[in-house]
């Protein structure tokens, strides 16, 4: 029996040693596998990080290019806006000058019409002069320092007085100032036998015209009535 026990013990010991050895090999294999897996994982992560960085770099490059294009576009838009704003401001200024909302200074002519014992100027004569000045290209006109605009009414109330806009009474001498191309206006009015200067002088009227490089015409001094202008549809 003792021999059997001894044999059994020896066998069990060998098995135990074998199992322990297998366990050791298993543990070593696991450890080796974990390290390899870890190293492989680290390489994969590095590759992923590199790829991610490359993608981010490409995205940044694309964004830089996109931003440069946008900056260029913004600058062009800004330049266009500035040009548009300048154009609009100039147009607004011209519009305000044309309708008489601002004082105007520039070259032009001064016409002096004076009643005499032989001939007196009527409202229709003043209307003719205003229309002729507009025909000659005048951009601003005044009579006795009252601004004349498109809605100005010139009415005769007597042989001595003429009424502007129903409440501004004027009389001879009538000083007409006009801003525009001085040479052109002088040419139109001094046209031989056909210009207003010769025509009126031949008819016995007193009229003088002179050019000037520094004429100031004040803005229209009343509210402009737009009651007859219809509002457009939205």
List the helices and strands and how they pair.
Layout: H1 2-99, E1 104-114, H2 123-135, E2 140-143, E3 146-148, E4 154-156, E5 162-164, E6 168-170, E7 174-179, H3 182-189, H4 196-202, E8 206-217
Antiparallel strand pairs: 1-7, 1-8, 2-3, 2-7, 4-5, 5-6
Would you mind describing this structure in some detail?
The structure is a single chain. This protein has 234 residues and is of the alpha+beta class. It folds into two domains: 99 residues; 115 residues, 2-Layer Sandwich (Alpha-Beta Plaits), CATH 3.30.70.1880. The chain contains four helices and eight strands, in the order H-E-H-E-E-E-E-E-E-H-H-E. A five-stranded antiparallel β-sheet has the order 3-2-7-1-8. A three-stranded antiparallel β-sheet has the order 4-5-6, with helices on one face. The longest helix is centred in the first third of the chain and has 98 residues. The C terminus is likely disordered.
Short précis:
It contains 4 helices and 8 strands; from the N terminus they run αβαββββββααβ. With about 230 residues, the protein is of the alpha+beta class.
C-alpha end-to-end distance: 120 Å
The CATH superfamily of the largest domain is identified as Protein of unknown function DUF881
Rg estimate, integer Å = 50 Å
Number of helices: 4
Output mean pLDDT: 76
The best one-word shape is rod-shaped
Give me the count of strands: 8
Order of neighbouring strands in the sheet with most strands: 3-2-7-1-8
Could you give a short account of the major beta sheet? 5 strands, antiparallel
The name CATH uses for the topology of the largest domain is Alpha-Beta Plaits
* Integer count of domains: 2
**What top-tier CATH class of the largest domain fits best?**
Alpha Beta
Which architecture of the largest domain does the CATH hierarchy give at level 2? Answer: 2-Layer Sandwich
Q: What percent strand? A: 15-25%
Please trace the helix and strand order, writing H or E for each element: HEHEEEEEEHHE
* Helix content percent band: 40-55%
Q: Give the uncertain stretches in residue-range form.
A: 22-33, 226-234
The assigned structural class equals: alpha+beta
């Amino acid at each position: 029996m003792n021999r059997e026990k001894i044999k059994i013990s020896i066998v069990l010991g060998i098995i135990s040693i074998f199992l322990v050895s297998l366990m050791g090999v298993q543990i070593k294999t696991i450890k080796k596998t974990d390290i390899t897996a870890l190293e492989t994982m680290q390489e994969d992560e590095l590759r992923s990080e590199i790829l991610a960085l490359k993608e981010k770099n490409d995205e940044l490059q694309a964004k830089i290019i996109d931003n440069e294009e946008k900056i260029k576009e913004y600058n062009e838009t800004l330049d266009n806006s500035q040009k548009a704003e300048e154009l609009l401001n100039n147009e607004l200024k011209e519009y305000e000058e044309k309708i008489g909302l601002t004082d105007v200074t520039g070259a032009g002519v001064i016409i002096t019409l004076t009643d005499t014992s032989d001939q007196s100027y009527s409202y229709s004569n003043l209307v003719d002069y205003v229309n002729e000045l507009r025909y000659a290209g005048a951009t601003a006109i005044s009579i006795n320092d009252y601004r004349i605009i498109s809605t100005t009414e010139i009415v005769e109330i007597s042989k001595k007085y003429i009424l502007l806009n129903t409440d501004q009474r004027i009389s001879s001498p009538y000083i007409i100032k006009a801003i525009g191309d001085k040479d052109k206006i002088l040419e139109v009015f001094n046209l031989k036998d056909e210009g207003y200067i010769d025509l009126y002088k031949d008819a016995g009227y007193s009229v003088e015209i002179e050019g000037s490089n520094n004429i100031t015409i004040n803005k229209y001094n009343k509210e402009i009535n737009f009651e007859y202008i219809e509002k457009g549809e939205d």
